[in-house]
Write a structure and sequence with these properties.
Blueprint: H1 6-10, E1 22-26, H2 30-35, E2 41-44, E3 52-58, H3 65-78, E4 91-103, H4 104-117, E5 138-153, E6 160-162, H5 165-172, E7 175-177
Parallel strand pairs: 1-3
Antiparallel strand pairs: 1-6, 2-5, 3-4, 4-5, 5-7
């Protein structure tokens, strides 16, 4: 089998999601694409034992409009979902649940299995899929994207960092599920 059944990974009763306020800073437009459920994996050069809710923060660098157009075109071919209208910078944008972190080699092994078995996500935002290009050493598998109705301006940090419990509780009230 490719991995545990999707239902087991996604069932919050079997696999409760820990929200420790852990954040990651990403460049735009990738940050918005992730919280909108268009992007499902995030690559890094480093491994982590982290699993659970990961808050997505956008870096301060303004995205190149031609890159936004190129990636919007690429991801809209993979998923029939709403594209972001704005790509705010230096802001907390939403969150995803990291259910696995795998090596580049394992990611490509799963891509091949998916192709061989003709797996189809049927545009289910919570289907673990391996259809994106990713050349990073480690790949975060992300499900259950939620975006904040309004991005919250703040500074980010390097690698994984945390927001306070009070911030987390307040922000959780402004989350919108992606369906």
């Amino acid at each position: 089998t490719m991995e545990p059944p999707v239902e087991d990974i996604l069932n919050p009763n079997l696999n409760p999601v820990q929200d420790t306020g852990t954040c990651i800073t990403m460049h735009q437009p990738w940050a918005s694409l992730l919280v909108y459920g268009l992007k499902r994996v995030e690559g890094r050069s480093w491994d982590t034992d982290f699993r659970g809710r990961l808050w997505i923060h956008s870096a301060s660098l303004q995205p190149d409009p031609s890159l936004i157009e190129e990636l919007a075109n690429t991801y809209s071919k993979l998923r029939s979902r709403e594209l972001p209208q704005h790509y705010p910078t230096s802001a907390l944008l939403g969150c995803v649940d990291v259910v696995d972190v795998i090596t580049h080699e394992e990611y490509h092994r799963r891509q091949q299995l998916q192709i061989e078995h003709n797996y189809n996500e049927d545009d289910n935002v919570n289907f673990t899929t391996y259809d994106e290009e990713n050349e990073s050493d480690y790949v975060f598998i992300c499900v259950r994207p939620k975006r904040l109705v309004m991005g919250v301006p703040m500074s980010g940090k390097h690698k994984l960092w945390r927001i306070t419990k009070k911030e987390r509780v307040n922000l959780s009230q402004g989350l919108k599920d992606i369906v």
